Amino acid sequence: MSIAPSLAIASSRQIGNARLQRALLRIIKEAHAGKAQATTLEDLRSQYFPELGDSRAIRQAINEMRKDGIPIGSLGGVGTYWPADIKEAMECVAELRAKGYDLLDTAASMEKGAIAHFGEQQVLGI
Fold this sequence. Notes:
This protein has 126 residues and is mainly α. It has helices spanning 12-31, 41-48, 56-67, 86-118; strands at residues 73-75, 79-81.
């Protein structure tokens, strides 16, 4: 599927975050619907936003859209896509939850280890 050339070359400063989000959502919905059509963030950047130095702005824009409730899918090793159905969307939700739980477990273990190593001390700024 072909995407309008006007979306192809832009920098995050030129189009702003809201416009970047709109452009990404359109591209993902039109050209990457379903896991079988998934693409990497780097491919999105190089194909549609080559002026961006790396894919960080794309990652951030997608994360913000997800926080706004837009179900952009992403599964490890698959890439980014628009879910074809509720099953694909919920697979992504399950993976995100698993990552979150794992991060919380890691933080709790680090906290216990730090207290065991250093003792409970007052830490300014936390």
